Amino acid sequence: MMVEILKVEQLSGGYSHNKPIIHDLSFQVGAGELVGLVGLNGAGKSTTIKHILGLMEPFKGTIQVDGHAIKESVTDYRSHLAYIPETPNLYEQLTLREHLEAAAMAYGLDQTTYEERMPQLLSLFRMENRLEWFPGHFSKGMKQKVMIMCAFLVEPDLYVVDEPFVGLDPIGIQAFLDLMVDMKVKGAGILMSTHILSTAEQYCDRFILLHEGRIAMQGTMDELRESVGDPKVSLHDIYVSVAKGEEPWKK
Amino acid sequence: MEKVETLWSRRLSEHWQMTSRYLKLLSNSGFMFTLYILIIGGGYFYQQWVKGLPTTFPTEWILLILFSFFIIRSPIRTLLRSADLVFLLPLEDKLAGYFKKAMVYSFILQSIPLIFVWAIALPLYLHTVDTRFSAYGATLVVLIIIKGWNILCAWQENYLLEANGYKWARGVVSLLFIGLLLFEAPWYALALLVVITVGLTLFSFHPLSQSHLLKWEVLLEIEERQAANFDRFANLITDVPHMKNRIKPRRYLNSVTEIFSFGSNSVFKRFFSKTFLRSGEYFGIYIRLIIVGAIVIWMVSGELSSVIIAVITVYLTAMQLLPMWSSGQVEEGPALLYPIPEQVRQKNFLTIFMFLLTLEALLLAIISCLVGIPILFAFLILAVGIVFSFLFTYGYASRKLHKEAD
């Protein structure tokens, strides 16, 4: 039995009770597993992520990270996860070094570990020379690298990643993918929302296809193929078919 | 689709709608009342003061500095928005009229304070420089012309990313012009300067727009800086939600924030101390208020009154620093998800807050000592200051943070 890092059960939620955006979502992310969260704009990916982060309260259902629900202790719950947002938000008044330092301190890393991991991450993302810079001088891609470095610096049990590839340079993308593989080996779980399906197909262990707030299909690539009855079909084709509302698994 | 020709007038009316809303708030606040009192009272004392001045008083030099400041500083308000870099960029050719209107608008707007300074200095000038009103009247006409020239040249500078050389040239020429005017130099000196200016305009400034591309990002930056200046001013009275803070790195103060140990209990101590030192104007306001408080204590030179002034200074500082809690934009960045309880965040903020107020009380006590307040009262300043800081921090401020958190 695989250890479940993230366990979502019958989650319904949204901004208004009359109009829930996500309905009855149930899925898990196991230790050492990278799960792709795939869906059109407006399918409910971001809402799902906000619920997992505890920025929104579910109408119904439960979410557990490492067996902790957010209601027990917000601090405890959040100490097990790191989030890499699609739009990087940094503090204008803090340098790159200070962002990394704050993350390390906030998540309870000791100074030796921090000083060990930081230079490695910096060189991976080619940011060694930017350590004393303020984010005002960073491009979007660089800001994203800062968010990614903060997350991997902490090495939490669960990573929640929202569309990481847009804006990153090829070195950044490769470094990010390599890090995800490393963390998987170390036993972390990763939930990643993305539109870059070819990369997702190559790197994700399982997929959750969201359509209009519901899970249309989920499973490994083989399982998805099996359910649509086509052993060669790509994730892209399945996704397009789901997005068109064709319910391919009924074919 | 909107016509380019009407764009300026629409932008201008939108801008004034926004601005007048803040001006209305401003005029309803105690600020305007204070200003009236200052003008009426100040005017009376000013008249008295001028009458007693010897004719050797260096009015020319003072006016030279004042006029130069208002003339050479010529940022052009284009009312551009960041989206214009995408949507208006293809229309650059058709925007000549728009930018011309922007220049005229900036010219008129910036001439107003110039005329004010001129008018305020009128009695001073007539008493100490030249008794003929016509001389001073002619000065105004020339000043306005130089202002116009500065605006024209400042526009040309927008075609360069690095226009410092041109800015210096413009500044020096303007300074010379105003100087010659005030010191009533012979006509040929002025004529020579006119020739130089015309040459500079035709051969240095004018070609810029011919041989370079308009730097839209420079325009936008100038516009945003001016908008921010107004916002900061309005923010003294009311809350300006869209205010963007500029960052001053102040790297020489970095080590101060590193005194807090490495660990989750220090995250927000470091965060808020860095916010205080670098973000917005907190540090500037803090220093300025201490200086003002010190000057008032020195001028009044009373014993008990110095204690009262010190406490008022600490109180004003506290009110100015309190918004730091929310305007560090904690909730918009990664710290939103930090696994650190709200109580710890608040406690850390209050620690920094209390420290700053106590330090201020200490500084005011030391300064009082230096300006001759008896040492006993200096100690009293320190003691009362600390008690007040404590009550404000853990009574008022702490309750306010709790309320905001709910």
TrEMBL record, chain A:
This is ABC transporter ATP-binding protein. Residues 6-237 form the ABC transporter domain. The lineage of its organism: Bacteria, Bacillati, Bacillota, Bacilli, Bacillales. PROSITE patterns: ABC_TRANSPORTER_2. Keywords: ATP-binding, Nucleotide-binding, Transport. GO terms for molecular function: ATP binding; ATP hydrolysis activity. InterPro entries: AAA+_ATPase, ABC_transporter-like_ATP-bd, ABC_Transporter_VariousFunc, P-loop_NTPase.
From TrEMBL, chain B:
Keywords: Membrane, Transmembrane, Transmembrane helix. The keyword Lyase does not apply. Pfam families: EcsB. InterPro entries: EcsB_ABC (IPR010288). This is Protein EcsB. The keyword Transmembrane helix applies. GO terms for cellular component: membrane. The chain crosses the membrane at residues 21-46, 52-72, 104-127, 133-155, 167-183, 189-208, 282-301, 307-328, 349-367, 373-397. Signal peptide: none annotated. The gene is ecsB.
